[in-house]
Amino acid sequence: MKLINIMVIIPSLAGGGAEKVILNFFENINTKHFSATLVTQNKTGPLKHNIHPSKIIDLDYKKFRYALPKLLLVIKNKQPDIILSTFPHITLSLLFFKKFIYKNTIIISREPNMVKPSLNNSPFSMLFKFLYKVYMPRANKIIVTSTAMKKDLIARGIKKENLSLIYNPVNSKNIRNLKKVIRQPGKGLRFIFAGRLVYQKGLDRILPIIRDIDNCHITILGEGNNKTALETLVKELDINNKVKFIGFSQNANSYIAGADYFLLPSRWEGLPNVVLESLVLGTPVISFKEIVGLHDIIPLVKNKQLHLCDNENTLQKTLEKLNFREDYADPSLRDNLLNTFNTPKEYAQKIEAVIEELICE
Questions:
Q1: Which value, to the nearest 10 degrees, does the dihedral of the CA atoms of residues 120, 126, 128, 133 take?
Q2: Are residues 333 and 14 in contact, defined by beta-carbon separation less than 8 angstroms?
């Protein structure tokens, strides 16, 4: 039986949820049926993986516009049966050139975020909106991560049969395999945030609330182009004693497990993996209702430990009523708060099923 050749394309090994999902898929592909190649715009970033170097093609460019010619040449030479891309700017470029270079290749797009706010806040917004409207319907299949995302794309003219709803994977065993639990010392509420320090993540709207909450502290894990502005805001609010920037940490799960609550003040998301990971670690999550992808998992969360607030005012009122964990002096790993969800292997199998269905058409 001939192996199905898959080319998976990501920008880098940055520590984002989309990259984690794709690497999880790649590591769990059924090698009896599929031959896979991972193409990276560059290999910068902290994400670890178990992919053999022979399976990785590094284009070695910082900016995608410079990497695109080399990417197209790689695709022309490899002629993959399937291309899987999870970042719209890459996917749209591939769809634009498809009929000229690799018209027989099937292109699958995985949407990482809700489309409308992503397009509204992207560089060259008007251009991307036009390209999205014209070219995204030409994808052979689009994988969405929530019911709300599926409805949004249908409203944008994407055919229902071209959409597959597949929830992100969670590797509970690996996530809960901690050497230690780390908590900011002291008695009082201890919050945690983990993610890119960018406008989308909304940390600027949570810091004024932290100022007004007595006896609390927030640990911030991650890097991003808003870090300097956020550090300045912390100084302006005079809350240096309430905020600690850690940067990217290989011990992120240990910090999340030790906190009282995980805060996700994002302005928009798809289905944020960090929320799933926090719940698996037993740490309740507080976010906003506008993160519509989270509505799908509410029935899967034990003890109603996913709190979705209407706005900043209701979030502040929620935080004011919270109690810190009883074992604050010597915290231990708490029980998993997330009921059944896709394992990485199950996630890979569901994408494989989509691929095999497309191949057979």
A1: 100
A2: no
Contact 186, 214 (CB under 8 A): no
pLDDT at 172: 93
Confidence of residue 169 (pLDDT cuts 50, 70, 90): very high
Tokens of 157: 């003219």
Does some domain include residue 336? no
Residue 111 confidence (pLDDT) above 90: yes
Model confidence at 1: pLDDT above 80 = no
CATH number at 203 reads: 3.40.50.2000
Write a three-state SS string for the chain: CCCEEEEEEECCCCCCHHHHHHHHHHHCCCCCCEEEEEEECCCCCCCCCCCCHHHEEECCCCCHHHHHHHHHHHHHHHCCCEEEECCHHHHHHHHHHHHHHCCCCEEEEECCCCHHHHHHCCCCHHHHHHHHHHHHHHCCEEEECCHHHHHHHHHCCCCHHHEEECCCCCCHHHHCCCCCCCCCCCCCEEEEEECCCCHHHCHHHCHHHHHHCCCEEEEEECCCCCHHHHHHHHHHCCCHHHEEEEECCCCHHHHHHHCCEEECCCCCCCCCHHHHHHHHCCCCEEEECCCHHHHHHHHHEHHHCEEEECCHHHHHHHHHCCCCCCCCCCCCCCCCCECCCCCHHHHHHHHHHHHHHHHHC
Question: Which structural domain range is residue 198 located in?
Answer: 172-320
- Contact (CB, 8 A) for 83 and 74: no
Claim to verify: residue 154 and residue 184 sit in the same structural domain = no
Q: Which residues 6+ apart lie within 8 Å of 100 measured at CB?
A: none
Same domain, 147 and 209: no
d(CA 89, CA 177): 35
